[in-house]
Design goal:
This protein is about 0% helix and about 50% strand. The chain is mostly beta strands and about 120 residues long.
Length: about 120
């Protein structure tokens, strides 16, 4: 028998947005609903724990598609690479929005710094 310890191959993802939508945003990762953003934050998500204005989920390491939508039909989209035992933060930007005068393409989002969990 092996007394081996399984190495954790998951990481944590914190999703947030600073753009107001038409109410709560339903957040999906790889087509699965993971929660709702009911508050919007003017500052970057800094914690890797559940908090108001963020959706937090543990995911297998690898690349994941993140999509959020509001009741008005607007969509927010991003892609994030989750690393084993790391906390990734993803700021969702609405498709077609502008930031500093630049239009954000459909598959763009800001990925903040990575921190160990």
């Amino acid at each position: 028998m092996c007394a081996c310890r399984k190495i954790d191959q998951t990481g944590q993802l914190v999703v947030w947005t600073d753009t107001r939508g038409g109410g709560a945003l339903t957040v999906r990762v790889d087509s699965q609903i993971i929660g709702e953003l009911r508050q919007f934050s003017a500052v970057a998500a800094t914690a890797c724990t559940p908090a108001a204005g963020v959706v937090t989920v543990r995911l297998p390491a690898g690349s994941h598609a993140v999509v959020a939508s509001d009741r008005a039909g607007r969509a927010w989209r991003g892609t994030v690479t989750v690393r084993s035992r790391q906390c990734e933060r993803l700021r969702l930007a609405p498709i077609g929005a502008t930031r500093d005068g630049v239009t954000i393409p459909a598959d763009s989002a800001d990925e903040s710094d990575k921190r160990p969990m």
